[in-house]
Write a structure and sequence with these properties.
Order of helices and strands of chain B: HHEHEHEHEHEEHEHEHHHHEHHEEH
Strand content of chain B: 5-15%
Number of helices of chain A: 16
Number of strands of chain A: 16
Distance between the termini of chain A: 82 Å
Number of helices of chain B: 15
Largest sheet of chain A: 9 strands, mixed
Number of domains of chain B: 1
CATH topology of chain B: Amidase signature (AS) enzymes
Radius of gyration of chain A: 30 Å
Oligomer: heterodimer
Distance between the termini of chain B: 18 Å
CATH class of chain B: Alpha Beta
Strand order of the largest sheet of chain B: 1-3-2-4-6-5-10-11-9-7-8
Largest interface: A-B, 30 and 43 residues
Shape of chain A: elongated
Largest sheet of chain B: 11 strands, mixed
Shape of chain B: globular
Radius of gyration of chain B: 21 Å
Structural class of chain B: alpha/beta
Number of domains of chain A: 3
Helix content of chain A: 40-55%
Helix content of chain B: 25-40%
Chain lengths: 481, 488
């Protein structure tokens, strides 16, 4: 039988606030275990949560960027369960009245534009982290808990089950990531865990309207694992259905190294969270003018930015698509563009040299040493003929490494292009003298010899000679012989 | 004159006239605790060193001619569910035995700023669940009027310590009557303030939407003075009310002439002890004598308040008490894996009443039961609130019994349902979030004190204090002392 796959996503995004959602502990990564904690995020007896206003602001901004309705009345609820990383035995979350609902993202597919619905966005707190001692869980002597993450603000973005392939999911996640990044409310980096995705996947016979039973797959920490898990789950569920079995509703976890999913818990075990309204926090009332103020603060979104790059800057759609996929890249492009006019040349350098280096060295775009003004200066040096394109690549590598100015690098390493005719004529004299055979060949009509001689001169000038000038002078010289 | 019998404002006069020093006053109380608390058993922890240090600081201020606040140097006790920095805060539970918070409850920070003197932490029903203080995991507290009777609960240690003059005043907490009922049983005054008037930060939660901290004291003026110190907005408690707070003593001397007072019929009659009812009616007629208009009124949903309360409070408790899992602090019972550790810790750490309420609350919140129990209870809560709202369009305050009976006999309180009924007059107040004050008004046939309760609209504590004060000034029935022979 032919099956259609139906996929929805739950995406957790860590908000980039300075402090936690209900206390003033820092949210910074990488502190010694249990150093970013206080009585409130540790849930010590008698302590009470106080909502960080920035969290509300960021959640609303994310909602607006994802075309959501913002609830003027929403509230927090407690999600109760026992786990050592959960300091209060409940997570403060939002259940039936989330801050945002009914949004969407438009994605590009091979069949054209497709709209993926956003069911809701709610605010919640992160839990701590268990650190198992020893190599494996079976030989582990015990576990330690680090509560530095406890109380770090998250938003959970729930999509409609609108996606029909792994490609659509990846496209959805890429667009979502870019939009979130643009709003500035999160770094949205999957590798670092500031964007985490759970996938809900079910199959149904092609043509059937009702959804099949779904499995929820957790623990996906890269776009690649999202793609892999979807293929794996499709295969697993097809096998079950084809052999006459039934898919059970359950939560599964992805094992990246083994390339397979495992059952974590079935629905019966997992759905008893005893949600009820959080009595320690009053309802969240948001005024219309506050929402409008935040809407006005939103920067241009990737879609609009892309259109503008194509229409105003004259960039090809492909270039615009690559650059707008990342906020940091767009910012870099924009900054270079304010100093340098030729958009296509900028995009060539970004897509070529810059991204190659970034990918090869695994550097974060917002941690670049090379500054946009320096990049613009480099392009100008090429345009004015002070250095050749080839040398420019060498200079760029140095700039990328050190953050030094291109002018300084060129001066220090003596990389300036030589167009001075006197200097070049001396070089030509020498090369012609030491290569009589080639000169003879040229005279005999073998034009190939000219190229050889030019190459020799370039070599002697360590690549700095201006090839056009050499060509002209060399032909003059040979013809005069 | 017995110094230990005096009130805050009386002692304050003596202090500023230098007729007594804060250290002498504190020593006198510590001495009484040493001699008499083995009979009352109010204190879990006596912080004598700290108390003397605090008293000394006040004496230094006095010696230097500095002005001192009304509560400065006055020895008091604190219910053991209010967090005290570096001092055991046990909630009278094995679970938190030895737990020393790193922070003070906001109320204690406020009292510290007033140069208070803390004698120690007093007994209670475990996690404030109970009406007799017999649910303490450590020991039972006795009623200073009759050692065979309970002091009430859950703030039994607070009420007993004040009644036995082992503290000038005390701080308790009230979730369904836990300040007012023990105040009534022990013949002292207790106030449950409006929800949000006193910060809950540092109060170990039982039921967050119902809990309030409040004072127990020997006269109405003292209650007003304590309220001046502990009430107010606190940014650490999101449910605390950001509004103007009055000087609670300002209304005391005002006449109650023309005040309209309702006498809700649902709080009288069946289930109410006849002596108790007689005293409530006596208080009402006294108020009429003083110029108030008293008339019968009705709060028709009163009978549904108790079942609603016993769904809402346990539901919140089941969540609030989830954190006692042995991972971070308090009791941990080692076991073969994490889940067993949770289970064993909670099995051994909690007493039967706490477990009963956790079970009840867990059940009420479970999917499939939520709508029928918890949600329905919330609707009832709304109806109870509306009853009061309506009544307060006609009346400035209401007068009722604080409890259906006087102090219960000890060791006779095994049936939880019977016990739950002893909170029947106080529970609706917490559901509505309004203030309630219990005032002693005479004794019953056995010589045990009777409490009358005054209820008012949210943030009308000054009116309640005004009515209570006029009763206090015009009868001898409000300032009662345990019978010397029978009591301690």
């Amino acid at each position: 039988m032919d099956y259609e796959v139906v996929i929805g996503c739950e995406v957790h995004v860590e908000l980039k606030t300075k402090t936690k959602i209900f206390c003033s502990c820092p949210t910074d990564f990488g502190g010694e275990p249990n150093t970013h904690v206080c009585p409130v995020c540790l849930g010590l007896p008698g302590t009470l949560p106080v909502l960080n206003k920035k969290v509300l602001e960021y959640a609303i901004k994310a909602g607006l960027a994802l075309n959501c309705e913002i609830a003027q009345f929403s509230k927090f609820d407690r999600k109760n369960y026992f786990y050592p990383d959960l300091t209060k035995a409940y997570q403060i979350s939002q259940f039936d009245l989330p801050i945002c609902k009914n949004g969407y993202i438009d994605i590009e597919t091979d069949k054209g534009k497709k709209r993926i619905g956003i069911t809701r966005i709610h605010m919640e707190e992160d839990a701590g982290k268990l650190v198992h001692q020893g190599n494996t869980i079976t030989t582990s002597a015990g576990s330690l808990v680090d509560y530095n993450r406890a109380g770090v603000p998250l938003i959970e973005i729930v999509s409609e089950p609108d996606m029909r392939s792994a490609e659509e999911v990846v496209e959805f996640l890429n667009s979502l990531k870019a939009i979130i990044e643009y709003t500035g409310v999160s770094d949205a980096r999957m590798e670092q865990g500031s964007l985490r995705c759970d996938v809900n996947l079910s199959l149904r016979p092609v043509g059937q309207i009702e959804f099949g039973t779904r499995a929820e797959i957790k623990n996906l920490n890269s776009f690649r694992s999202v793609e892999r898990v979807i293929q794996y789950e499709i295969d697993r569920q097809v096998d079950i259905l084809e052999s006459g079995g039934k898919v059970i509703q359950e939560t599964r976890t992805w094992d990246e190294s083994k390339g397979r999913t495992y059952s974590l818990r079935s629905k019966e075990d997992s759905d008893e969270y005893r949600y009820f309204p959080e009595p320690d926090l009053p309802p969240v009332i948001v005024m219309e003018d506050y929402i409008e103020k935040l809407r006005a603060e939103l920067p241009e979104m990737p879609k609009e930015k892309r259109r503008r790059m194509i229409e105003k800057d004259g960039l090809p759609e492909y270039d615009a698509g690559i650059i707008t996929a990342s906020k940091a890249l767009v910012d870099f492009y924009d900054a270079v563009h304010t100093h340098y006019g030729d958009a296509k040349k900028i995009s060539n350098w970004i897509m070529g040299e810059l991204l190659a280096k970034v990918n090869a060295e695994g550097i974060e775009l917002n941690a670049l040493k090379i500054q946009p003004e320096q990049m613009a200066a480099l392009l100008k040096l090429v345009d004015s003929g002070e250095i050749s394109g080839k040398i420019a690549k060498k200079v760029f590598a140095e700039m990328f490494e050190t953050g030094n100015n291109p002018g300084d690098i060129i001066k220090k390493q003596g990389l300036m292009q030589i167009s001075d005719e006197t200097a070049l004529k001396t070089m030509i004299e020498q090369v012609v003298e030491t290569n009589p055979k080639s000169v003879e060949d040229y005279k005999a009509g073998k034009t190939k010899a000219l190229g050889f001689l030019v190459g020799q001169i370039m070599k002697q000038s360590r690549g700095q000679a201006n090839p056009a000038v050499i060509n002209r002078l060399l032909v003059e010289k040979l013809n005069s012989m | 004159m017995t110094i230990s019998r005096l009130t805050i404002h009386e002692l304050h006069e003596l202090l500023i006239k230098k007729e007594i020093s804060a250290t002498e006053l504190t020593k006198e109380h510590l001495d009484r605790i040493r001699r008499l608390d083995s009979n009352v058993k109010a204190y879990i922890t006596v912080t004598d060193e700290l108390a003397l240090k605090q008293a000394e600081a006040v004496d230094k201020k006095l010696a230097a001619g500095e002005k001192i606040g009304m509560l400065a140097g006055i020895p008091m006790s604190v219910k053991d569910n209010l967090c005290t920095e570096g001092i055991q805060t046990s909630c009278a539970s094995r679970m938190l035995e030895g737990f020393k918070p790193q922070y003070n409850a906001t109320v204690l920070e406020k009292l510290k700023a007033e140069d208070f003197v803390m004698l120690g932490k007093v007994n209670m029903d475990e996690f404030a669940m109970g009406s007799t203080t017999e649910n303490s995991a450590f020991f039972h507290t006795r009623n200073p009027w009759n050692p065979d009777c309970v002091p009430g609960g859950s703030s039994g240690g607070s009420a007993a310590s004040v009644a036995a003059d082992l503290a000038v005043y005390s701080l308790g907490s009230d979730t369904g009557g836990s300040i007012r009922q023990p105040a009534a049983f022990c013949g002292v005054i207790g106030l449950k303030p409006t929800y949000g008037a006193v910060s809950r930060f540092g109060l170990i939660a039982f039921a967050s939407s119902l809990d309030q901290i409040g004072p127990l004291a020997k006269d109405v003026t003292d209650i007003a003075l304590i309220m001046n110190a502990i009430s107010g907005y606190d940014k650490k408690d999101s449910t605390s009310a950001n509004c103007n707070y009055p000087d609670y003593t300002a209304s005391l001397n005002k006449s109650i002439k023309g005040m309209r007072i309702g006498l809700p019929k649902e709080y009288l009659g069946e289930g109410i002890d006849s002596d108790v009812e007689a005293q409530v009616l006596a208080a009402a007629s006294k108020l009429e004598d003083l110029g108030a208009h008293v008339e019968e009124c009705s709060l028709p949903h009163t009978r549904y308040a108790m079942p609603a309360y016993y769904l809402i409070a346990p539901a919140e408790a089941s969540s609030n008490l989830g954190r006692y899992d042995g991972v971070r602090y308090g009791l941990r019972v080692q076991a073969k894996d994490v889940a067993s550790m949770f289970c064993e810790t909670r099995k051994q750490g909690f007493g039967p009443e706490v477990k009963r309420r956790i079970m009840l609350g867990t059940y009420a919140l479970s999917s499939g039961y939520y709508d029928a129990y918890y949600l329905k209870a919330l609707k009832v809560r709304n109806l109870v609130k509306q009853d009061y709202d309506k009544a307060f369009t006609q009346y400035d305050c209401l007068i009722t019994p604080t409890a259906p009976t006087t102090a219960l006999r000890k060791g006779n309180n095994q049936n939880p349902l019977t016990l739950y009924k002893s909170d029947i007059c106080t529970i609706p107040t917490n559901l509505a979030g309004i203030p309630g004050l219990s005032l002693p008004y005479g004794v019953d046939r056995n010589g045990m004190p009777i409490g009358v309760q005054l209820l008012g609209k949210a943030f009308t504590e000054p009116a309640l204090l005004q009515v209570a004060y006029s009763l206090e000034q015009n009868t001898s029935l409000t300032r009662l002392k345990p019978n010397q022979g029978k009591g301690i």
